[in-house]
Design a protein that fits this description.
Structural class: alpha/beta
CATH superfamily of the largest domain: Nucleoside phosphorylase/phosphoribosyltransferase catalytic domain
Helix content: 40-55%
Radius of gyration: 24 Å
CATH class of the largest domain: Alpha Beta
Oligomer: single chain
CATH architecture of the largest domain: 3-Layer(aba) Sandwich
Strand order of the largest sheet: 1-5-2-4-3-6
Distance between the termini: 71 Å
Number of domains: 4
């Protein structure tokens, strides 16, 4: 037996264990660096990737160290006695090897793979192998099988209402924070819309990151249910709810690989929505030359895949293809995007009209799901709810119910305007580059960091006019962001 020790290292979704090289109890070849081990105490057990430590300050000869995530999952205090044994490789790995060789997998094989992934039986290398194998080729039936397996492994929420609405954007467009306007509009109408959102993966902010500027997003399932019953909507982080947990594990590997194929994207999105209990879903696919989806033909292919898989899973699903040629709104980064959202909800004269109009369009499509709404009148109803102030009141009620946000610093005190290099008209804005500059400035980790856009496509500019302002809270972040922006602002002016 070894004594458990908490190692204060954030290893994200990877479960990591530490064993001293001087440990006399476990010297066999199977206990080598990067081997998989099983850590157990009574009925509690986890799998972790082993690292060997040569420094006694990290872990002693009679101790087993666990990074923060597996330590919390095991749920034992420091000093508790645990047993360690070599973990057998998951049998489902043979299916992954078959997929690498080009074989089409059965639904039972995807179920076994997903169960092993959710149980953290796969190493990072094995996860990458699975992702690469499915990125090469997946049939439509394989996408359905993967989606169904991810939705069924983990918690599944159910709701008493016949229509439970949700929306999701496939991403790639800076500042596209429509969910935070759509949710209060739909909630004010009375349709339940329990919006569980992720944090940013490759963007300067996710819905959960932006909402966290205004309210607490780290809610339990019980509090979330109570909110939806009382306020008819919420905007929370889905990380604590164990909804399609295998997807969260896969995302942790997709991020550094910058891998997001249409098949994996469809499976990821729909699995989360089915697990969250949604019955009616609106998917937004922005299309643009620097967006995630870059052509109309690609958008149509993805739309058809969403429609098929969603239909087979019992979802009432609508897909809308929108303009993704430039950022939506003015702010890029959590605090700046939250400012835009509240201006739209408050009908502020300074509100970004593109964010307002797109939100009305999407909210209208969701309101059309309501059997009591006359077909095609959803957009007009959404506009009336927004203009009347009912959406703002619904948002204020949601914010109050979710509770105050965690403390964060104000907008970064480092700021610089990026000027136009010539006079003319803004012909295009590179969404991908704008995202990168905003992330270099510190977003989303630094809530106040990001870009404040002053010019959009079609605007006239003179040489030297500011195109946008970079805000950062740290000198190093500021230097990285301004350096990239000076090299290439991301604006094409003709």
């Amino acid at each position: 037996m070894l004594k458990l020790r908490r190692i204060p290292l954030d290893t994200h979704r990877e479960y990591v264990a530490f064993l001293s090289r001087d440990c006399a109890a476990y010297r066999a070849e199977g206990f080598r660096a990067l081997a998989k081990i099983e850590v157990s105490a009574g009925s509690r057990r986890i799998l972790a990737t082993l690292n060997i430590a040569d420094n006694g300050l990290i872990v002693g000869p009679d101790e087993l160290g666990l990074s923060m995530q597996p330590f919390a999952t095991l749920g034992l205090p420091e000093g508790a006695e645990v047993e360690v044994r070599q973990a057998s490789p998951p049998e489902s790995l043979e299916s992954v090897r078959s997929k690498i060789r080009g074989r089409t997998l059965e639904a039972t094989e995807y179920r076994a793979i997903v169960e092993d992934i959710a149980a953290h039986r796969y190493s990072q290398m094995e996860l990458a192998a699975f992702l690469v194998s499915t990125a090469g080729f997946m049939t439509t039936e394989e996408v359905l099988a993967l989606t169904r397996a991810m939705a069924e492994v983990g918690n599944r929420l159910t709701w008493p209402d016949p229509v439970v609405a949700d929306k999701h954007c496939v991403g790639g467009i800076p500042g596209n924070r429509t969910s935070m306007v759509v949710v209060p509009i739909v909630a004010a109408h009375g349709l339940p819309i329990p919006k569980t959102s992720s944090r940013a993966i490759t963007s300067p902010s996710g819905t959960a990151d932006t909402m966290e500027v205004l309210a607490n997003v780290d809610l339990s399932v019980t509090r979330m249910r109570d909110m939806v019953e009382r306020q008819r909507g919420c905007l929370v982080w889905g990380g604590h709810m164990n909804l399609a947990p295998a997807d969260d594990v896969l995302i942790s590997v997709e991020r550094p690989l910058n891998m997001d194929t249409p098949e994996q994207m469809v499976a990821s999105i729909l699995a989360k929505k089915v697990a969250a209990g949604s019955t009616h879903l609106l998917i937004d696919i922005p299309v643009g030359p620097t967006a995630k989806v870059r052509s109309q033909s690609d958008a149509i292919r993805i739309r058809k895949l969403f429609e098929y898989v969603g239909g087979q899973l019992g979802l009432t699903l609508e897909v809308t293809i929108t303009d993704g040629r430039q950022p939506i709104g003015r702010g890029i980064g959590p605090a700046l995007e939250a400012r835009d959202v509240m201006r739209v909800l408050g009908n502020d004269p300074a509100q970004p009209l593109d964010l307002r109009e797109k939100s009305i369009l999407l909210a209208g499509r969701i309101l059309d799901f309501d059997p009591g709404v006359r077909g095609g009148s959803g957009a007009q109803l959404a506009r009336e709810i927004l203009d009347s102030g009912r959406a703002q009141a619904a948002m204020e009620a949601i914010i109050a119910a979710q509770g105050p946000p965690p403390a964060w610093r104000g907008n970064g005190h480092y700021a610089e305007d990026i000027p136009a290099g010539q006079s003319g008209t803004v012909a295009a804005i590179d969404c991908y580059r704008i995202n990168r500059i905003a992330r270099l400035a510190g977003a989303p980790m630094d809530k106040g960091a990001g870009l404040d856009l002053m010019k959009k496509v079609g605007d006239r500019v003179r040489k030297g006019d500011p195109l946008y302002r970079i805000q950062a809270g740290f000198a190093a972040d500021f230097a990285f962001a301004t350096g990239m922006a000076r090299e290439n602002s991301g604006y094409a002016i003709q």
